[in-house]
Amino acid sequence: AANKINVIPQDFFAELCEQIIHHLNHKIPGVNTAELCQRIQTSGVEINIGDLAKIANVLSFLFSTAARNNLSTEELIITLNSAVSTLPKHALQVIRHVWNEQGKSITASEDARNVATVGQFVDMKWKLGVAMSSDTCRSLKYPYVTVTLTVADPSGQITDKSFEMTIPQFKNFFRQFKEMASVLETV
User: Fold this and answer.
1) Which domains does the chain have, with CATH numbers?
2) Closest Cα partner for 165 from 177, 157, 154?
3) In the record, which residues are listed under signal peptide (predicted)?
4) CA-CA distance, 127 to 86, in Å (whole number)?
5) Is the pLDDT of residue 127 over 90?
6) Which of 39, 66, 108, 140 is in the most buried spot, having the most CB atoms within 10 Å?
7) Alpha carbon of residue 43 to chain centroid
8) Which of 48, 5, 20, 25 is nearest to 157 (CA)?
9) Average per-residue pLDDT in the chain?
10) How far is CA 31 from CA 27, 47, 52, 94, in A?
C-alpha cells in the first residue's frame, strides 16, 4: 500500500485521511472509496478502487491503533518512520497534520477502545419490476422487488448489496420493519 500512496495527490490523500478520522469518530458511516477513486482518476492519476480500499484499510487501522494506544503526533510519526521506511514524505506530512488536528477527538472518544466490529446501515433503495419473458418462458408476468442496501463495513468501506424478493417475501420484509418500528417507539 505504501508504494500506491506515492501516486495519490496530497490533497486527495488528506481528504481520505480526514474521512477516515470522521468515520472513526462516528460522524460519517464510512469512506466512499468508489467516489474518491473516480475523482482521483478524473484528475489524471491511475489508481484502481482495490488499491485505494487497501490504503483506506491501512490508514483506518493506523489511526484506530494510534487512538487505542493514545499516541501523540510525534510518537505516531516516529513509529511510522521506524516501521514503514517507504512511506512518501507528503503522506507523512498529511498524517502528521491530520493526527495533530483531529487525532485527539478519537482518543477522547470512549468508542476508540472498542472499534465497531459490525457494519453500519447507510441507505436503502428499492424498485418494483416485472419479468415479462425469458428465453425459456414466453409469458412470465412475474412481479418482484429489487432492494439495494448501502452499508459501511467495519473498516468504513461503503458498498452496495442488492437482492430480489417476490411480492410475498417483500410483504414479510415490510411487516418485520413495521414490527421493529413499533418496538423502537416503546424504547
Assistant:
1) 1-114 (no CATH), 118-185 (3.10.450)
2) 177
3) none
4) 48
5) yes
6) 66
7) 22
8) 20
9) 83
10) 11, 17, 11, 17
